[in-house]
UniProtKB/TrEMBL annotation:
A Pfam family per the record: DMT_YdcZ
UniProt-annotated stretches for the region Disordered: 1-22
Matching InterPro entries: YdcZ
Keywords annotated in UniProt: Membrane, Transmembrane, Transmembrane helix
Transmembrane annotation, as ranges: 28-44, 64-84, 104-125, 131-149, 170-187, 193-210, 231-248, 260-278, 285-308, 314-333
A GO CC annotation given for this chain: plasma membrane
Classification of source organism: Bacteria, Bacillati, Actinomycetota, Actinomycetes, Propionibacteriales
Organism: Friedmanniella luteola
Protein's name according to its UniProt entry: Transporter family-2 protein
Superkingdom, taxonomy of origin: Bacteria
PANTHER family: INNER MEMBRANE PROTEIN YDCZ (PTHR34821)
Low complexity bias: start-end ranges: 1-14
């Protein structure tokens, strides 16, 4: 049997073990609803964690505790999965051994800090900026950094050169968020302090895109479930530190509420982190991010319609169409690239 130059034939002495992602990748078309669904889970988690924050108390301290409850409950579920599902358990154990023996660079396992930083920036900046302006800045930072990550080849699927289609899709994602909150954005007074504070969500968005690239690389080494567990483990540790720091600021905690649905944020987080670690290896960081934004905008509109919290106006549905258009533009561009490469 002939082998390519520089490779070792299977079964030969010293041959490396097969990579965890050697199994066939999911079909391209089937991953599209998975990416939209991950955005929907982000929107649902935002609703759940927002309600939990209001029930826990006031100030940044309540926001930090809500995030810690979300991450901690997700970590508990994933740890039970690792105990009951032997392949996941072996993957987590192997991850721990590789980190201990320094077979993995430290930066490759710190992706979970991106989620902790997002929560910290939300607690610090969202009350002043308003949630709409905060999300707009976050998506802008996310889109710009996604272009950079893919262009530099820092993600798991190699270099994807900047193109007009990719730039247009990123701009459409930002525009969709701006259109959906146009009325609220017009009421935000623009000051030097506000623009300075806007740097936090911009940086959080950039960190989020870098996190997806890191997660994709780690998943290629150990698989998506151990990568998801690692995200929750590292994120939980980061949030413990953040919660401790918030004790130095004003705020009150009133105790844990009894409604079970307020603790579903961790399950939502498991879903979208697992989905993003799987799909980013196929589509790249930008495509996953733009589809996620489309899923968030669409789900937010449907939640408002179904819960009766406010009838979505024309601007909301225009935002939905714009976000879906952005997803279609970057998705088709990536599909054409994949066919040329393949």
């Amino acid at each position: 049997m002939r082998t390519a130059p520089g490779t070792v034939a299977p079964g030969a002495t010293g041959a490396p073990p097969p990579a965890p992602d050697a199994r066939p990748a999911p079909r391209w078309l089937l991953t599209l609803p998975l990416m939209l669904g991950s955005g929907a889970l982000i929107a649902l988690q935002s609703q759940v964690n927002g309600a939990l924050t209001l029930r826990l108390g006031t100030g940044v301290r309540a926001s930090a505790l809500a995030a810690l409850v979300s991450f901690g409950s997700g970590l508990l579920v994933l740890s039970l999965l690792a105990l009951l599902h032997r392949p996941t358990g072996r993957g987590v154990a192997q991850l721990g051994r590789d980190v201990h023996r320094r077979r993995l660079p430290l930066w490759l396992v710190l992706g979970g800090l991106g989620g902790a930083f997002f929560v910290a920036s939300q607690g610090l900046a969202a009350p002043t900026l308003g949630i709409t302006f905060f999300i707009l800045c976050f998506v802008a930072g996310q889109a710009v950094m996604a272009l950079v990550v893919d262009h530099r080849g820092w993600g798991p699927n190699g270099v994807t050169a900047l193109s007009r289609s990719r730039l247009a899709g990123a701009l459409l994602a930002v525009l969709a968020v701006a259109v959906s909150g146009a009325g609220l954005l017009s009421a935000v007074p623009v000051t030097a302090a506000l623009l300075g504070l806007a740097a936090l969500p911009l940086l959080a968005g950039a960190v989020n895109s870098a996190q997806q690239g890191v997660n994709g690389r780690l998943a290629a080494r150990v698989g998506p479930w151990p990568t998801t567990w690692n995200n929750f483990w590292v994120g939980t540790l980061g949030l413990v530190v953040f919660l401790g720091l918030t004790l130095l600021r004003p705020g009150d905690l009133t105790g844990l509420p009894s409604e079970p649905w307020l603790y579903l944020g961790g399950l939502c987080g498991i879903g979208f982190i697992w989905a993003s670690t799987l799909t980013v290896r196929i589509h790249g960081v930008l495509v996953v991010g733009v589809f996620s934004v489309a899923g968030q905008v669409l789900t937010a509109a449907l939640l408002a319609l179904l819960t009766g919290s406010g009838r979505p106006g024309p601007a909301t549905w225009v935002a939905v169409l714009v976000s879906l258009a952005g997803a279609a533009v970057v998705g088709l561009a990536q599909r054409r690239r994949s066919r040329r490469v393949g």
